[in-house]
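Lab meeting, item 3. Inverse folding demo.
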C-alpha cells in the first residue's frame, strides 16, 4: 500500500534539485491544481479530522508531483 506512493513521489527530488539551482518553471496549471488539492485538504481536516484525509492528500499529490516532474524536465530531455 505504501510502494505506489513512494515510487510516484520520486518526482519531488527533481523539483527540489531544480529549485536549488533556480531553474524551476512550474506551469500555472500545476499551481492551480496544487492550490485546489490543498484547499480540499484544509476543508477535509476541518470537517473530518482523521487519517483518511491525510491519505487522500497523498493520493492526490503524488500524481501531481509526477506530472510536474515531467513538465519541468521535458524541455531538458528534448535538448539531448
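The presenter then showed the designed sequence:
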Amino acid at each position: 500500500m505504501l510502494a505506489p506512493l513512494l515510487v510516484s513521489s520520486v518526482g519531488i527530488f527533481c523539483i527540489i534539485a531544480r529549485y536549488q539551482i533556480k531553474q524551476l518553471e512550474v506551469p500555472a496549471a500545476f499551481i492551480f491544481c496544487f492550490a485546489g488539492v490543498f484547499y480540499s485538504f484544509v476543508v477535509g481536516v476541518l470537517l473530518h479530522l482523521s487519517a483518511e484525509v491525510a491519505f487522500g492528500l497523498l493520493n492526490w499529490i503524488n500524481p501531481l508531483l509526477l506530472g510536474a516532474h515531467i513538465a519541468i524536465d521535458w524541455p531538458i530531455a528534448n535538448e539531448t
